[in-house]
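=== RUN LOG ===
request id: a7f3
mode: sequence -> structure
chains: 1
length: 215
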Amino acid sequence: MIKTLILDSDGVLYPANQLSLRIISEALLRTLNDFDIHKSEWRKCTDYCKKHGHLGMLNKIRRLCCTNGISEMDFYKAHAENIDYTSIRPNIELTKYLIELKNKDVTIAVASNNHQPHLEKVLDRVFGQSSENIFSDIISGHSFQNNYSEGQFHVLKPSKLYFEELCTRFNKKPQECVFVDDTLMNINACNDLGILGIHLFDQTRLIEEIRKFLC
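=== RESULT ===
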């Protein structure tokens, strides 16, 4: 029986057009400026991560912070402060529905490649104080780590290891979990492990899609 619901954040908890990738990227540039880091340093970190197969924005930020002696969490917090989240609208219908599922003993979690300060801002906008009553866990892009010759890197979707870590974290078999994401690569990866993946094309249909597998 499926009793664990795992939701991506951006494009799933709210429509992507309420907070575009462009806005997040522009905020990143302002954050680089806040720490007096030239854009060329970001490009170097991008090239390094690409060469070593470390995917995702957070691995680039990790590399950037390591090479510049900056606290990674301080950078994340500054990045979140540079983003205007007021465009994300509260979702009362989704809030009520997830509370209903929670009351039916369904474990609900957020699992995103983005950082913790961003997720906290998003959850506050969409659910307000109710988020504390809904989500059993908030899994950010820096929740899972792996080692390599020069240190640690973040394990992110669509890595198989990421989804294995999810199951371990919840002490569930893959077949006992539903994962909702708006990125097909992530859905393919979780399906390969045996997790039931829902590829969400339209955020307004989130509740409808979940109901196909959870009452």
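=== NOTES ===
Residues 21-85 form one domain.
Residues 67 and 95 are 41 Å apart (CA to CA).
=== END ===
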